[in-house]
Amino acid sequence: MSGRFVRVAEHGRRTFEIVIDGRRALASEGDTLMVALLTSQEALRDSEFGDGRRAGFCVMGACQDCWVWTADGERVRACTTPAAEGMSIITRLAQAQEGVWPRL
């Protein structure tokens, strides 16, 4: 699957697996979740207000547009949270178990 972000001239960074909405994806050492997610898919997350998919905005933790959830229900900012091996991230409301994503 192609993503919104494209890696250019990458050399020597270790890659590892994360899980995005139940599907395996690769992240590179030093990636934030936003980079890892957007190199694997076109959008970052569903909007909790029902207005479609979101892609983040400010990339510095101020705008609140990049919230995603871990599989255990922890809410994290994708733009400032480092990707870690084995992370399981929920970006789609339909994939979330009850109690993981706010239901409005």
From TrEMBL:
Keyword Oxidoreductase: yes
Pfam families xref list: Fer2_4
Keywords of this entry: Oxidoreductase
GO MF annotation list: iron-sulfur cluster binding; oxidoreductase activity
SUPFAM superfamilies: 2Fe-2S ferredoxin-like
Chain segments annotated as coiled-coil in the UniProt record: none
Name used for this protein in its record: NAD(FAD)-dependent dehydrogenase
Species this chain originates from: Caballeronia temeraria
